[in-house]
Amino acid sequence: MHLALVRPRYHTHLITPQLGLGYLAAAARQAGHSVAIVDGLADNLDDAAIVARCTDADLVGIGVMSDTLARSAALSQALAAAGKAVVVGGPHATALPAQTLEATGARFCVVGEGEASLAALLEALSDPGSIPGVWERGVGMPEPRPLVADLDALPFPAWDLMHPRRYQLAPHGAFVARFPVAPIVTSRGCPCACSFCASPGLWGGGIRFRSPGNVLDEIELLVKRYGVREIHFEDDNLTLRRPHVTAICEGILSRGLDISWAAPNGVRVDTLDRPLLQLMKRSGCSLLAFGVESGSPEILRGVGKGTTLAAISRAIDMTAQVGIDTQGFFIFGLPGETEQTIEQTLRFACDSRLDRAQFLLLDVLPGSRLYGELAPSSPSTGDARSFQQLTWCPPGLDPKLLARTPARAFRRFFLRHPRRVAKLLRRARPRQLRFVLRRIRDFDIA
Prior knowledge:
Blueprint: E1 2-7, H1 19-30, E2 34-39, H2 47-53, E3 59-63, H3 69-81, E4 86-89, H4 91-95, H5 97-104, E5 108-110, H6 115-123, E6 134-136, E7 181-184, E8 187-189, H7 199-203, E9 207-209, H8 212-226, E10 230-233, H9 242-254, E11 260-267, H10 274-282, E12 285-293, H11 297-302, H12 309-322, E13 325-332, H13 339-351, E14 356-361, H14 369-374, H15 399-415, H16 418-427, H17 433-442
Parallel strand pairs: 1-2, 1-3, 3-4, 4-5, 7-10, 10-11, 11-12, 12-13, 13-14
Antiparallel strand pairs: 5-6, 8-9
Helix pairs in contact: 1-6, 2-3, 8-9, 9-10, 13-15
C-alpha cells in the first residue's frame, strides 16, 4: 500500500517537524509500505495542492489537534471528494473519536498511539473488520490497543521525509541558539494531574521512557546525517527520572556531540538542583522552560499543579545562575481567576529572573479534566486559535478584560525590561523577522 500522511496549513507561530507523522511513516515503512509526508504547513500548500500530491495514495492520514479540527475537516472532505480513503488520528481524535469522525467525514479514526494500529489498517484496508485501536465509520467502538511497552522497539521517525533544514523559520521557541533544529521525545506520557492538561488523559496517566542509548543514537543520526546543531526535547517530563536525563547529558559529552539543546515544552521545577543544572549546561543546554501558569497560590492548588511559587522562583534563579536561559508559561483564565490574581501573575512574571515569557489564555482541551467540567460552556469548535482566543471565562471576570490580558502582560514583561528584548533579538535571524512581526500582531503587543 502507499500511505500519504498530511498536515494541513493552519495559523501558527510554530513550524516544526511533526514527530507523530514521522513515527507513523517509519512504522508503516517497517511493515513494508511506501510512505510520503505532505506538509501543507511547512510548504505553504492549500487543500487543492495537498490533494494533488496524494493522487497515488491508497490511504491518507491526517493528524488532528483541537485547534486544527476545522482545517483538518475541510482537508479530509476534499480528499474524500477526490475518492481517497481517509484516516484521522492525533490528540483530538483520541479524546473525541466519534465527534472527530463526524466532523471530518473520514472513514477511519485511530485512537491512541498509532504505529501498530495504522500498520494493521494498511494490511487489511480492503476488508478491515475489527482492528484494535481503529474506529470505522458506522461500525462502532473497537477494542482498545495497549500502549507501546518498549519505546526502543519503535523505529526512529522518518527524518528523510521531514528534513530539519526545511524547518528553520519558526521552530519551537522561535529564538534558538543554533540551526538547524530537530525535535525529539525521550518519553511518552505524564504522571502529573494538572487539570488543564490533556496529557494524562491521552496517555493513561503514566510515563514510559526510551533508553538513554536509544535517544543518543537518534541524536547522533540527526547530527551526522542531517547536520542538526540543536535538539529540542519535547517531553512532557524530560527531567522526571534523574538517571534518565543524567545519562543523556553524559552521553552527549562522551560521544562528543557538538550541539545545543533546549526543553521548550517545559520541565518540572521540583526535579532540578544545581549539580543537575550544571551537567545540563556542560552538555549544551541553552534554554529551560517552566510551566508557572499563575502567580496565585490558590489557583495553583486548584488546578493540581503540585508545586509552589517559592519552588518555582528557586528553580528559575538556579537556572539563571548556571547560565541557562529561562522561559515561563503563564495561563490566564484558569478557574478562580480574578483581577487580583491576574495582577499577582503579572507581578510574579515581571519580578522574576525569567528571560522570556509566554502569556496565554486558557484553552479547555478535550481529554483534560477541565474539559469534563467545563465543556458545556466551552464547546470545541476547532476554529479558535489555541491559547490565543478566548473560549471560556471564569464567572465574575470581565471577558473583555481577560481577552486583553496577554497583550498587556507581554508589554509589561518585555517593554519595561529592555534587557529581555535585547537578549531575544540577539538570537533572531533576519529571515525570521516576518514571523516575529506576525506574533506581535497576533498578540497585539505593539
